[in-house]
Queue: 4 jobs
Job 1
Amino acid sequence: MSELPKCPSCSSAYTYEDGEKYVCPECAHEWPMTAAEETVSERVVRDAFGTELKDGDSVTVIKDLKVKGASSSVKVGTKVKNIRIVDGDHDIDCKIDGFGSMGLKSEFVKKA
């Protein structure tokens, strides 16, 4: 028995085949079976200067960044080690000394 793909719209595992397409009973999304066979391209995250960033890279902050709930800001030149690339608006997860875990936007960093 083959494993049916999850719904690309809502990630439901309860999809079923209906002729030449897959159907999601939870959100009523329909997509062709050929689309499920295509490989999903990996998201490329680039820094402010266009250099590709990967998990484990070190970056440097290029602009003072205000931090909600903190009395100070992350200063220009702050080096951040061992970043993680994630999906979302803030596409870098990291730990910054003095601030702890936080998310950064790739447009405000450069690869170190």
Job 2
Amino acid sequence: MTSIAAKRRHPAAIAVVLLLGLIITGGLYAAFAPKDASAAPDNSQAIAAGHKLFLSNCATCHGLEAAGGDGGPSLVGVGAAAVDFQVGTGRMPLANPGVQAQHGIIVQFSTNEISQLAAYVASLAPGPAIPPADLTSGGGDIAKGGELFRVNCAMCHNFAGSGGALTRGKYAPDLMDVSGKHIYEAMLTGPESMPIFNDANLSPQDKKDIISFLMNVKTESSPGGWSLGNLGPVPEGLFAWTIGIGMMIAVAVWLGKKAA
């Protein structure tokens, strides 16, 4: 009888039993295994919403596929950080064509809508991500940040971040009213005439130190008196000529009339 049962057993029986065992084991593990709380959330809804916002507000200039269009550059590969900077500072949507996009007084989109637009552009190709809050909220080495700022940034933005003129009608903006997040994103993405400072040029800690220095400049007092906007020797010399020498001339004229 044993030999007859062995002859009737199908050759694939063992494989089928093993396969069923693996399926049952996998199902039990999937049902009872602890869930990973750090798993990345599904971003498809934000991407879809951002795509709709893009088509209705940005595609006219940047093209239906964000590959560039009528006056607008390609956004493929610029990353979420570029979108968050340009839209979050009110530079985009562009109000008026010109040599340089102006910092907007009013931001046209809500924080949630900006995140959706950034998610859509980030889905097109890899690019710089929005920096975490711990790198943009200060707390770095102020002295080192000041040194890095003077070496890399002061030639355009002034030694105290007050901005300055560039060529062909462009300018380096004042940094006193710019958030730490947008300063970090500007270093990552290089808007307008600004060069890109990636992590190979300035490490994340270096960027944090620069932001900390600028935050300190905003709050520190001027021990020398009136700072005249920290614009350097030109306004100081102009003040001396127009006000100081003007007062001296006025006093000399008054004394001359009195003597006469």
Job 3
Amino acid sequence: MKFVEEVVVEEFLPTFRSMLAEALRKRGLTQHEVAETLGISQSAVSKYAHGEVSRRTEILEDERVRELVEEVAEGLASGDMSRVQALVEAEVLIRRLEERDVLARLHEEAMPELSAHDGYVRIHDPESDLRESEAVRSSVRRALRRLTNASGFAGLIPNVGSNLVACLPDATAVDDVAGVPGRIFDVKGRATVPGDPEFGVSEHVASVLLSARGAGADARAAINVRYDPDIVSTLEAAGYDAVEFDPEASGDPIAEAVAAAGPLTETFVCYQTGGYGIEPITYVLGPDADAVATAVGRLLRG
């Protein structure tokens, strides 16, 4: 894991300072004066002067960086610019270069995973989509750990496999829903998760969640487990509403059943008892992945 601030410290600052030290020396400042002006040691200035500091080509050749170096060097050398103003101008440029620019590209180079999010975004923005999507994936991971570590969970997995999904707040499509790539299967009595949660990898359970949301349910997570009358009864006894739907009905049977049921408990159950070539399944839906895992846990405790 590498922070964009590390890119600034390790890539930008050595290059920028060496360029600035060089520009100040050309304007007649001694090594001692350059060191005092930049707030660094004379040995650092000496290293800059002798090319002993690695400089990043992308920064060294950036016209905006070169222009700022000349502007700041001239201002500091003449006394027209204070160190505070020089710092502010440099910070402004850094923020600009972090946003879908050269520092963003260097950050993606160090953290290739960032490129999967439609290009670089300001990851330090508390309102960013990246932060929200990673929080959703994290919630799925935590709930999966709870379930796969729980004794007996594998016995709840249907023949078609299970999936645990969670969605973004304004989810309207499968790509807005994170789940397990492939499905969770029972392998010799052990629940096996094939990969890290991703968005857009669940068609079936994600569609169930989206249908329920489209009918007005305030659910953001769901899981499918096998159907058994006792499973539904246990969940109802625990205080969860249960809604049956016909998997062979035309239209969107889940949405219609949820809409017809009226207000439901925060975490609730949708189930179908099977049909021609259709395995009976129970779906547990809730406000988040943790709430869904808690409901499934009640089944494991009996």
Job 4
Amino acid sequence: MPRSAAPGLPTPHPIADRLPGVLAEDDFTRRFTQALDEVLAPVHLTLDGFVAYLDPALAPPDLLDWLAGWVALPVQEQWTVDQRRVLVAHAVELHRWRGTRHGLATHLRLLTGGQVTVADKGGTIASVQSTDPEAAPVSPHVTITVAVPDPALVDESRLRGAAAEHVPAHVPFTLRIERAVPSG
């Protein structure tokens, strides 16, 4: 149910309490202003809790997608509410590191809660001649390893989609999901 349709919301500022004495004593005026109080109560409630609407940890789930739009975070329908909260809260950091190993690892760590390592086989070559036979092209490839306590709980297709958004389109990648080794 939308917040504005919650029945019986009390108002912190009844209109009748602010009327001049002659109107406050009139029964019809009091009943009329009570109806207006019921209409205005959701507005007061929203304004009183506005700060919570802007905090990803406190915002109602239906507003998380709206907040994600504010921080230019594309939302995947399959993400849970908790994953959306974490990603929206860290969106600025994710944008700062987008296109880097660190950015990819951070994004996948936030989605899974696991340890993520990214191995990049990329490289560059330079040659004065475009047909230099000694300048063998390096074929780029990224290997992503995600270590989580229970690999069965990770949706591999969703994780693969999230990785594909961060790895350059021309670079193939391998995704490995492994059981985390307990420390100590």
